[in-house]
Design brief:
Layout: H1 2-13, H2 19-25, E1 40-55, E2 62-73, E3 86-89, E4 101-103, E5 106-111, E6 119-124, E7 127-139, E8 151-160, E9 167-171, E10 178-179, E11 189-202, E12 206-218, H3 221-238, H4 249-252, H5 254-272, H6 282-355, H7 361-367, H8 386-407, H9 413-440
Parallel strand pairs: 1-9, 1-10
Antiparallel strand pairs: 1-2, 2-7, 3-6, 4-8, 5-7, 6-7, 8-12, 11-12
Membrane topology: Multi-pass membrane protein
Pfam family, one: Neur_chan_memb
Keywords: Cell membrane, Chloride, Chloride channel, Ion channel, Ion transport, Membrane, Signal, Transmembrane, Transmembrane helix, Transport
């Protein structure tokens, strides 16, 4: 089988393998791993050339990276005498045993093949190093709740198809095994931190896994210029209507224009926002705040204009109501005076009846016909007391009138005066709370 393999290689390439390689390949079987007594230890190192695209548009976010993947292991079957390494063509990798290394969560990976496959096999007197230039698109689980003020931790995971009894992975220099991030330039991100770790993947059995973690911080300057500043300026533009006269309806109609512009800005920002695993993001909250302030300015104008139209009618109604209440007061005072007069007369009538001696029986008989029933009139009959009831009703009406007077807006122009201070102050306070929460919590 080895002779047939070498013969096919010679025929395919049109060349004869060097004598040193022929001696190494004699009796070599690429389907069998070295060191049957124990697992093969494979050292890994990465050189990240670029991270071209970090996409959040899809439901599963991903990034595309171009990396040099270096794997180093020792194969006792390839030991030869000498102190110099042998550099071989990448196409001879098909003749050697290589660890079955793959990238976890990779959507698409490929080797650069211009002008030939960018692979290099270098055999040392006691081992083998495989260099490979790989471009891969890897999924990254991102939390976009604080988008665009978010920090994302993505991973690049290397795993083997052999279990831990056959192959063991390790980083050749720990955290220094990954290079190239210091000079890396990204469009919207900066690399904050990175580190490496060693773990095991558990499926039906345990498999070796190396993990490279790197933290990306999004640059917010682009979003400030693209979204935050225009939306804030639209809010400020809606406040201009507070300085325009309420009678100038065409001039204040610009508020409707700001509402429409803000709606267009929100829809335009939505098209570039990711369809993330969270419904509300930080930029959605800010756009909602700006839209609420602009809509509030529109409502303020509607209320102020309505109060202007009804101010004259309300004033006349209050005058009529006041005159009516004054007449009621005069009438109630007359009733109270009349009742008081009758009460004092009744008291004066009762006083002689109490002080005079008892009348004879004939007098009693002469009084009895005045009673319809013929019975003796009751000496003490408490007269009705409408005074307290009338006073209570009058006090209640006065309280209602006072409450209506407090709720009534004397001058509708005061609404604009209050809005000139309330709207900007509220917007500043809300902005302080918003930026403090999303930047520091």
């Amino acid at each position: 089988m080895l002779e047939n393999s070498l013969l096919n290689a010679e025929v395919k390439e049109g060349e004869i393998l060097p004598p040193t390689i022929q001696r190494l390949m004699k009796g070599y079987n690429k389907y069998l791993r070295p060191f049957f007594e124990g697992p093969v230890t494979v050292g890994m190192s990465l050189d990240i050339a670029s991270i071209d695209t970090i996409s959040e548009i899809n439901m599963l976010q991903d990034y595309t990276a171009t990396i040099f993947l270096r794997q180093r292991w020792t194969d006792e079957r390839l030991v030869f005498e000498g102190n110099k390494s042998l550099s071989l063509d990448g196409r001879l990798v098909e003749l050697l045993w290589v660890p079955d290394t793959f990238i976890v969560d990779s959507k698409k990976s490929f080797l650069h093949d211009i002008t030939v496959e960018n692979r290099l096999i270098r055999i040392f007197p006691n081992g083998t190093v495989l260099y490979a230039l790989i471009t891969t698109t890897v999924a990254c689980n991102m939390d976009l709740t604080k988008y665009p003020m978010d920090k994302q931790t993505c991973t690049l995971q290397l795993e083997s198809g052999y279990n831990i009894n056959d192959v063991m992975f390790y980083w050749t220099r720990g955290n220094e095994s990954v290079s190239g991030l210091d000079t890396l330039q990204l469009a919207q991100y900066t690399v904050e931190d990175h580190y490496t770790s060693v773990s095991e993947a558990v499926y039906e059995t345990h498999y070796p896994r190396l993990v490279f973690h790197f933290e990306l911080k999004r640059s917010i300057l682009y979003f400030i210029l693209e979204t935050y500043v225009p939306s804030s300026l639209l809010v400020v533009l809606s406040w201009v209507s507070f300085w325009i006269s309420l009678s100038s309806v065409p001039a204040r109609i610009c508020i409707v224009t700001t509402v429409l512009t803000m709606t267009t800005l929100m829809m335009g920002a939505r098209t570039s926002l990711p369809n993330a695993n969270c419904f509300i993001k930080a930029i959605d909250v800010y756009l909602g705040i700006c839209f609420s302030f602009i809509f509030g300015a529109l409502i303020e104008y509607a209320v102020a204009h309505f109060c202007t139209l009804t101010h004259a009618d309300a004033h006349m109604l209050m005058l009529q109501y006041g005159h009516h209440m004054h007449d009621m007061d005069d009438e109630m005072n007359g009733i109270i005076t009349t009742i008081s007069t009758h009460s004092s007369r009744a008291k004066r009538r009762k006083e002689p009846a109490v002080t005079s001696p008892p009348a004879p029986a004939s007098a009693e008989l002469s009084v009895s016909p005045s009673s319809p029933s013929g019975s003796e009139p009751k000496p003490e009959v408490s007269p009705p007391e409408p005074t307290n009831w009338c006073l209570t009703t009058l006090a209640t009406l006065r309280k209602i009138l006072r409450f209506i007077s407090c709720c009534h807006i004397e001058n509708p122009h005061h609404i604009d005066n209050y809005s000139r201070v309330t709207f900007p102050l509220s917007f500043v306070i809300v902005n302080l709370l918003y930026w403090t929460y999303y930047l520091y919590f």
